[in-house]
Specification:
three-stranded antiparallel sheet; single chain; mainly beta
């Protein structure tokens, strides 16, 4: 199989290279910074942005948060099936 990503530098303007399942946690950062967050089951997502502030966004089923995030918080998060889209 040919890998079209083998010679491509990671970029925020390109596709992510993986969806990483997220377990919300108030004390632990994500393993890799998320370029965006995908949610299977709608609800509130409490997260810490790359810039530092905490935010809460309510998304529908199969919704997206298009904002860099370093942590998804357990407190305040009601959405389920959360995935971080990573680019590196």
């Amino acid at each position: 199989m040919t890998n079209p990503f083998s010679r491509r530098a990671s970029s925020l303007s390109g596709p992510g290279i993986d969806y990483v399942p997220v377990t919300p946690d108030d004390a632990t950062d994500l393993g890799d910074v998320a370029a965006s967050i995908y949610v299977e089951g709608g609800g509130a997502v409490a997260f810490v942005t790359v810039k530092g502030p905490s935010r809460v966004v309510v998304v529908p089923d199969h919704g997206w948060i298009v904002c860099g995030a370093t942590r998804v918080l357990a407190t305040g998060t009601t959405a389920t099936g959360i995935h971080a889209v990573v680019v590196s």
